[in-house]
Amino acid sequence: MSFQVNGYNPTSKDFIVRGEDTLSTPQTMAPSLSLLLICLLALYTPVTSKKECGRPSLGDGMDLEGLQRVYSPGDVVVLSCKQGYSPTSGSRTIICTASGQWTKSRLKCSTKSCSFPEALDHGDMEFVDIVYQSTINYTCHEGYTLQGASTIECLHDGQWSDPPPTCTPVTCGLPPIPKYGKIVYDSNERGSCSTNGDWTEPPECKLVTCSAPTDINNGYMNIHDKREYGFKETVRYGCNIDYVLDGPVEIECLQTGDWSIKPACRVPCKVDIKRGRILYNGRTFWIKDFEPNKISHGEVLSVYCMNKEKKCGYAVSTQCIDGNLKIPECFEEPSDKFNDDSLPSEIAQC
Ligand SMILES: *[C@@H]1O[C@H](CO)[C@@H](O)[C@H](O)[C@H]1NC(C)=O
């Protein structure tokens, strides 16, 4: 602190006194001491003469420059809002009145807010508020790495301290190459990059063989050599005429040394009735004219039954399942001297 006193002039014009400097210098000791006394007197004089105002009380978020504790009537003070608060209303100026009271200020300071944060893809955020000094913590889901700041803070200017981070998928470096990698029979084996950034265990290399594939009933294979087969080698099957392939047309030698599931050749069906009409593929046939008497596995045909109460006929369908065609129970085999006109297929349909 320094102060200046006018009117005391030992050698030249104004004399500036700086506490310690002056006191420690012997030549100036005597004038300094008396000067100090004058100063103290000068300071005390106004304190006792008038009413004064104390430091004004400040509302939430308000600020006042300087550290002055005492103000004189007529002193004007401009209030402001602290960092992170913005003025919303009211005059900022207050005046120390003669009664030693401050005039009222209507200034209100409200906390500044930052923008509402956007959701983080593949991650979560944690926050309670978005006002000045609030923080948001960001974390990424498993398998993702956080790029950017994991915590951001709402600053006094209403801006977030950092842009929001992003979560990017974890990447692994080059995978370890398995020992004896060159003799791998399976070139399709893959390692994968796991969520913690490590590779899955590298594969073991072993020679896979499947024994010679076996025939299927009523069908054939596209190969004739009875040898062992290697991993992922395939064999195709086909069925003899009228037989239907059920299952995959191709089998593959699996990693386990077994073949994948073999198909089967499904057997066609004979329509086991002697007389009467059938409905097949939208057309009716007398059974004696149905040549050859055979339908394939999975195919459907109908026979006719009689509704005795209503005296009408109706078609009932049945499906060929691997050589079995179940004739519906309601079907009655006509006698060998049957009259066409009385058959359920020939009369009015229900
Ligand atoms: C953010 O994380 C810190 C440190 O773990 C914790 O103290 C703080 O409460 C968290 N903030 C929020 C808003 O959850």
How would you briefly describe this protein structure?
Residues 51-111, 112-169, 208-267 form the Sushi domain. The protein has 350 residues and is mainly beta.
What does this structure look like?
The protein is mostly beta strands and 350 residues long. The chain has 5 domains: 41 residues, no CATH class; 50 residues, Ribbon (Complement Module, domain 1), CATH 2.10.70.10; 47 residues, Complement Module, domain 1, CATH 2.10.70.10; 63 residues, Complement Module, domain 1 (Ribbon); 66 residues, Complement Module, domain 1 (Ribbon), CATH 2.10.70. The chain is built from 2 helices and 27 strands. The strands form 11 sheets. The protein has a 5-stranded antiparallel beta sheet with strand order 24-23-25-26-27, with no helix packed on it. The protein has a 3-stranded antiparallel beta sheet with strand order 11-12-14, with no helix packed on it. Strand 11 and strand 12 form a beta hairpin. The site of 2-acetamido-2-deoxy-beta-D-glucopyranose has 6 residues, from strand 11 and strand 12.
